């Protein structure tokens, strides 16, 4: 209900009673102070799936932010300018499991700075300026399993630096300045569960087992590469569980290799000796140290004769993988791998290979993976045709300019073929005819301009086809018909303008279609390209500059017809001027929509009505003037909204409430109207806890001019918490109604109100005195007006006191001086058996007489005793008694005496009065009544 409707409703209900009016006003005041749905803003971080990424858009952090929620499980503070880690920086982060501090300038970590991180598993301190590690900086990290401290300036490890890391299994302390294997010993001694140690590129010159003999070494992986190790001497079995060893080095010094027993490395299965030089050049003896278990051997950038090394290596029957990168092999001769009959994987990448002899791979009958990328091959080598069980072939980044009909003959088992970054201008129709088992084909960045039906009839099992980054201008009908199993088709970053009708017919299994960054014409879109793509889940059309010849830009309303399973649609930066409201009626499952960087200006709720499952919406840079379309769009499932750099300046309470599931709002670069119109949005941004508002602390004001460039969150909104105009309306309405009620009451109910007032006072005194009075002091209290005092003194008093002997109480004679008048009246009434009210016109007009009569009548009805005697000195019409409701009620139930009617027989009057005074308060005597006199 809007504010106008609320006010109308209030006006109507206010006409009933004053109580209802007050209730409604209070209710409206409560509604106006209700806090909206949840949300929160961080100054320098953003939260995504329980992870905080802290990288300010306008600089670098110098300290750890203190507003990161304690519930996050991962914090990324990398690439900032933090110099110190303080004890208070990570307090109350007990659920944190990952902390990334790489790329800062940290020189100091306070003792126990990580003490609260009891759940932490991974800690990254790479690329900082740590020189030493204190004794207790890792206190509390007993659950950390992975620690990285590379690219610092650490020179030594203290004996107790790592003792708190009892669960550590992986440590990378590469690119520091450790110079002795004693440092390695110190590490291993403190870390009983360590499985993998990476200590590359330090200053280790010796590695000798006698320095490690006291350690319990459970290492499975050890990386000592790029250290100037002159002596590697193992005289004891200190690595009984080692399976992975890297001792490669590109440093020019040569190493002395001294292994006293060949069984010491009997479990090593992966060995990397890239760039290593031995003093003895006895590689046969060296490799025999690993003979019994070695399966993977890496010999990149070798200085020794590679032919000899390959021959020696291939005599080891267990080796199945051989990596020979960057060895400057220009020609692969036919006998180079003649002994490598057990190889299943061969990597010859980055070798400047220009020629491979046809028989070069003849002996590699079991080869399944061959990498020839980053070489200078002019064509597909015929040698690969001998590899009949080959599963993966990498020919990327060569100089292959064409594909022949028989280039891949016999490769029926091939599953992946990489041909990207080769200068192939056109495909051969029969180039892939033998690749019946191929599943992945990478042809990106090959300058291809024509497909030539290469995919019309072959590749029945192909699932992924990468043709992006080429020079295709058209996709003709039937050119992709042979790809029945295709799931992922990448055609982005080409020059495609036209898709002929039926271009994608037959691709019923396609789930991802990437068409971004082309030159697609709107005319071609009218052909309904996507017929048959019922399983398509992602469609990307961004950066296509879609337009007609008359410069109108829009998408046909039936563009997405048939895509009933589409989950993601991207039309970012496509020069669109409008989107038809029925565009998405065929895509009810859509969850991600990006229409940013277009000229849409306004959006309508009808556009979103068919896609109620939408979870992510990108509407940045579309010159949007308002977000009011959200109010009726019913996007109740939306979790992510990005609306950067638009021209709206106000976000209303209704717009906020329309997105109950929102967890992330990105309004980066937005400026706002800084007045009470944005008070609800500002309050929601700062105080609530469900929706993160990215970069909120940098939002600036664009109005009024006096606040230009002021930060929105610096605005004081306390004055906005009360709606002045609405409150003025309520106040004016209340005062008007009050004036009308007072006027009405004064004119028609004045006497009733006066009487009610006296009744109320009498009730108070009755409640106070009715149970507190002791025994009767008087037989009767005489209530009369001063103008009737002569009759009381001359007639009533002589008869009742002098002749009949009653004890009477008169106010002028018996009231206690100095005592409040109402207390005297109450004491007199409750201290007497009876009260005689001497009623006249003057009596009815007297304030105090009315109080006396009212209090006496309360006693009569509340105590149910015959304690009241009414004596009328004058004839008083019924109309004059109407304001005195209690008296009228009393006269209808009670007998009374009339003096005017007794003038002819006063003796009877006094006798009746005597009898009335004589009756007691018991129930039997209450039945005795005076002779009834006609009542008014």
Automatic annotation (TrEMBL):
The chain crosses the membrane at residues 21-42. InterPro entries: Leu-rich_rpt, Leu-rich_rpt_typical-subtyp, LRR_dom_sf, TIR_dom, Toll_tir_struct_dom_sf. Keywords: Glycoprotein, Immunity, Inflammatory response, Innate immunity, Leucine-rich repeat, Membrane, Receptor, Repeat, Signal, Transmembrane, Transmembrane helix. GO terms for molecular function: signaling receptor activity. It is found in: Membrane. Pfam families: LRR_6 (PF13516), LRR_8 (PF13855), TIR (PF01582). It is a single-pass type I membrane protein. Residues 776-917 form the TIR domain. GO terms for biological process: inflammatory response; innate immune response; toll-like receptor signaling pathway. The keyword Transcription does not apply. GO terms for cellular component: plasma membrane. Its main location: membrane. The keyword Glycoprotein applies. Belongs to the Toll-like receptor family. This is Toll-like receptor 22. It comes from Labrus bergylta (ballan wrasse).
């Amino acid at each position: 209900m809007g504010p106008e409707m609320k006010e109308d409703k209030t006006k109507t209900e206010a006409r009933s009673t004053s109580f209802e009016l007050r209730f409604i006003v209070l209710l409206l005041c409560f509604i106006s102070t209700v806090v909206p749905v949840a949300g929160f803003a961080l100054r320098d971080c953003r939260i995504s799936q329980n992870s905080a990424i802290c990288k300010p858009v306008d600089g670098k952090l110098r300290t750890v932010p203190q507003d990161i929620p304690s519930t996050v499980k991962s914090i990324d503070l990398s690439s900032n300018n933090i110099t110190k880690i303080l004890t208070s920086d990570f307090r109350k982060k007990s659920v944190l499991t990952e902390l990334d501090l790489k790329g800062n300038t940290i020189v100091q970590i306070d003792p126990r700075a990580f003490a609260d991180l009891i759940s932490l598993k991974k800690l990254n301190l790479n690329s900082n300026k740590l020189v030493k590690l204190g004794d207790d900086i890792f206190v509390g990290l007993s659950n950390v399993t992975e620690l990285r401290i590379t690219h610092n300036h650490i020179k030594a490890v203290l004996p107790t630096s790592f003792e708190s890391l009892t669960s550590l299994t992986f440590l990378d302390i590469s690119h520091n300045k450790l110079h002795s294997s004693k440092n390695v010993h110190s590490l291993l001694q403190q870390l009983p569960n360590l499985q993998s140690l990476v200590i590359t590129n330090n200053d280790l010159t010796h590695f000798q087992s006698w320095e490690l003999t006291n350690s319990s070494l459970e290492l499975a992986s050890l990386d000592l590469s790029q250290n100037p190790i002159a002596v590697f001497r193992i005289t004891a079995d200190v690595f009984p569980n080692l399976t992975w060893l890297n001792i490669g080095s590109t440093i020019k010094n040569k190493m002395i290799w001294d292994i006293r027993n060949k069984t010491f490395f009997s479990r090593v299965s992966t060995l990397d000796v890239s760039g290593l030089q031995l003093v003895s050049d006895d590689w046969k003896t060296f490799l025999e140290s690993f003979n019994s278990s070695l399966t993977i051997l890496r010999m990149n950038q070798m200085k020794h004769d590679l032919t000899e090394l390959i021959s020696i290596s291939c005599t080891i029957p267990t080796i199945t993988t051989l990596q020979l990168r960057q060895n400057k092999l220009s020609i692969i001769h036919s006998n180079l791998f003649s002994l490598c009959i057990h190889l299943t994987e061969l990597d010859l990448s980055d070798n400047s290979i220009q020629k491979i002899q046809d028989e070069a791979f003849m002996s590699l009958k079991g080869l399944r993976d061959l990498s020839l990328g980053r070489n200078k091959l002019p064509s597909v080598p015929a040698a690969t045709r001998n590899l009949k069980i080959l599963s993966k072939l990498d020919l990327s980044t060569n100089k292959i300019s064409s594909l022949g009909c028989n280039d891949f003959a016999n490769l029926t088992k091939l599953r992946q073929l990489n041909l990207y970054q080769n200068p192939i201008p056109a495909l051969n129709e029969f180039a892939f005819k033998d690749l019946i088992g191929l599943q992945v084909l990478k042809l990106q960045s090959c300058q291809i301009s024509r497909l030539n039906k290469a995919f019309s009839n072959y590749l029945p099992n192909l699932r992924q086809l990468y043709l992006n980054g080429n020079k295709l201008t058209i996709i003709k009908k039937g050119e992709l018909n042979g790809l029945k199993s295709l799931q992922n088709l990448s055609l982005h970053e080409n020059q495609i303008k036209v898709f002929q009708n039926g271009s994608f017919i037959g691709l019923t299994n396609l789930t991802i279609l990437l068409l971004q960054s082309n030159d697609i014409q709107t005319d071609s879109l009218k052909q309904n390209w996507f017929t048959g793509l019922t399983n398509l889940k992602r469609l990307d059309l961004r950066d296509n500059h879609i337009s007609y010849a008359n410069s109108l830009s829009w998408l046909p309303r039936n563009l997405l017809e048939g895509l009933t399973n589409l989950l993601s649609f991207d039309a970012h930066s496509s020069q669109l001027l409008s989107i038809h409201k029925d565009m998405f009626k065929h895509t009810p499952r859509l969850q991600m929509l990006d229409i940013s960087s277009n000229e849409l200006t306004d959006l309508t709720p009808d556009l979103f009505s068919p896609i109620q499952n939408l979870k992510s919406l990108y509407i940045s840079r579309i010159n949007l003037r308002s977000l009011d379309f959200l109010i009726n769009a019913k996007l109740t499932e939306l979790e992510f909204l990005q609306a950067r750099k638009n021209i709206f300046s106000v976000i209303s309470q209704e717009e906020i409430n329309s997105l109950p599931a929102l967890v992330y709002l990105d309004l980066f670069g937005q400026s706002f109207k800084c007045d009470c119109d944005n008070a609800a949005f500002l309050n929601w941004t700062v105080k609530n806890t469900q929706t993160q508002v990215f970069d909120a602390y940098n939002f600036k004001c664009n109005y009024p001019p006096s606040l230009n460039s002021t930060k929105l969150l610096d605005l004081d909104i306390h004055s906005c918490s009360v709606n002045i105009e609405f409150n003025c309306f309520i106040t004016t309405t209340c005062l008007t109604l009050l004036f009308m009620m007072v006027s009405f009451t004064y004119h028609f109910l004045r006497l009733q109100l006066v009487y009610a007032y006296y009744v109320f006072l009498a009730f108070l005194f009755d409640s106070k005195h009715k149970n507190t009075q002791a025994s009767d002091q008087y037989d009767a209290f005489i209530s009369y007006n001063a103008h009737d005092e002569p009759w009381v003194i001359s007639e009533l008093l002589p008869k009742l006191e002098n002749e009949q002997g009653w004890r009477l109480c008169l106010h002028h004679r018996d009231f206690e001086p100095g005592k409040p008048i109402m207390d005297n009246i109450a004491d007199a009434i409750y201290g007497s058996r009876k009260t005689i009210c001497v009623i006249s016109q003057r009596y009815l007009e007297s304030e105090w007489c009315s109080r006396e009569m009212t209090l006496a009548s309360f006693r009569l009805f509340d105590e149910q005793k015959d304690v009241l005697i009414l004596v009328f000195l004058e004839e008083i019409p019924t109309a004059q008694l109407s304001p005195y409701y209690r008296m009228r009620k009393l006269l209808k139930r009670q007998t009374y005496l009339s003096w005017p009617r007794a003038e002819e027989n006063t003796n009877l009057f006094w006798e009746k009065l005597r009898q009335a005074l004589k009756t007691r308060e018991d129930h039997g005597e209450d039945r005795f009544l005076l002779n009834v006199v006609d009542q008014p």
